[in-house]
Amino acid sequence: MNTYLDLIDRKKQGFTLDKNQIFAFAESVYRNCWPDYQIAALLMAIRLKGLNNQETLWLTRAMAHYSAKLKLNHRKAFVVDKHSTGGVGDGISLVLMPLAASLGFAVPTMSGRSLGLTGGTLDKLDSIPGIRSRFEPAFINRQVGRIGLAMFGQSDTIAPVDRKLYALRDAISAVDYQGLVISSIMSKKLTEDLDGIVFDVKVGRGAIFNDLKDARQLAKKLVWVAKKNSLKAAALLTRMEEPLGAAVGNSLEVMQALEILGGNTNPLFDDFMEVTLGLMSRLLILFRKASNEASAIQMCYRALKGGAALKKFELMVVAQGVAKNIAGNLRGHLPKAKKVFSAMSDQSGWVSFVDAKKVAQATQCLGALRRTQEDKVDLSAGVVLKKKTGDCVQKGEVLGELYTGRASSQDCKMAMGLFKDAYSFSKTRTHREKMILEIIT
User: Is 409 part of the annotated catalytic residue set?
Assistant: First the structure.
């Protein structure tokens, strides 16, 4: 039997851990046999010495093994999910998952909270009055079987090993190591009884990965681990230099999602829609519901314009605790900011760039993101962009609006400065770049 120190020492020296050692470690975490400082020591040794592909696969399976799992045995539909590495204005799950359900997929999707400068789907959902997001597997099984869609977070029984390891990784600054990122993502997905998954791996200053090479490596490994666990899988490398869509902030992104689900079009949503339709097309093609991207996109637009996707979202929120009268008029019940400021352009010209990182920093000042894991977010806070790359702006014209419920005057001033500083201008029009850089299958 390996002692705690044996495993730590072995990895410190750069040796490979075998399957039995990795499963024993996961079981020890699950049963609270290791003290936190020794778990953290092994995680840091892994961060410094690495995991090979086989170790990553074993760790993924071990973490999933010690978790309650969904059992969607009805199999009336293919069970699918999506994972994003996170970005600024990335409320895509709010649209993609109801859209997938409306197109005949069964969709149990486990989501998370905001982290650093990237938003979290659960925080966005929290802005809907009365909604619940922590359930036991039996409840999720019934809901997905009944309406085809559930959006939920980790619970005491679902992915407890990942919850413990993630908190310690965050505490010791080991969040960014790919082997641990992959095992964290995929161990949670393996609890969902999936048939397939698509990954949105973002690249740029508004993402975890700035380097295309690193993002490509992560995407390939995610697809590899998924396939090794008998899932159909594909990954999109997508640009995250500028904010997605027009809204950044929890209730503001829900409002935007409702507009898109309702079939409303807006040029400010074009980049958001390119990524959403790209991910949905991959799922439809993977499961042979569409023969090509063009036909897949047509299917998506029919579901959006016909109201089927919005209906799925409304059914889901009611099933998860929202009163029917509120679900039928969500726009009127979302949190409203007490303070709204307009950011005016100091010059005329064409918008050539909007820096996602600075926009995210502005929303953090307004209270829309956490500075520490213990922070409570302001669900009404955030920004709405009125101008994006390629738009013509006159001096004094509104670039965007800033919302907050509780930020101090000093924080509001900082947010305004960051938001305006995010904008760059040119004398000639700059065309928006394509969002999807690569597709990995």
Answer: no
228 assigned to active site: no
Q: What is the pLDDT of residues 291-310, one digit of tens each?
A: 999 999 999 999 999 999 99
Give the structural domain span for 16: 4-50
Residue whose structure tokens are 């996170």? 86
Strands (DSSP E) contained in 138-209 are: 149-152, 196-203
Residue of 10, 47, 163, 169 marked catalytic: 169
Residues 374 and 308 in one domain: no
Q: pTM (2 decimals)?
A: 0.95
CA-CA distance, 29 to 26, in Å (whole number)? 5
Q: CA 368 → CA 53, 199, 222, 336, distances in Å?
A: 37, 25, 30, 13
What are the pLDDT digits (tens) for 51-70? Answer: 999 999 999 999 999 999 99
- Residue 169 known to be catalytic: yes
Same domain as 239, residue 106: yes
Tokens describing residue 258: 């409702």
Q: Which of 111, 155, 184, 187 is catalytic?
A: 184
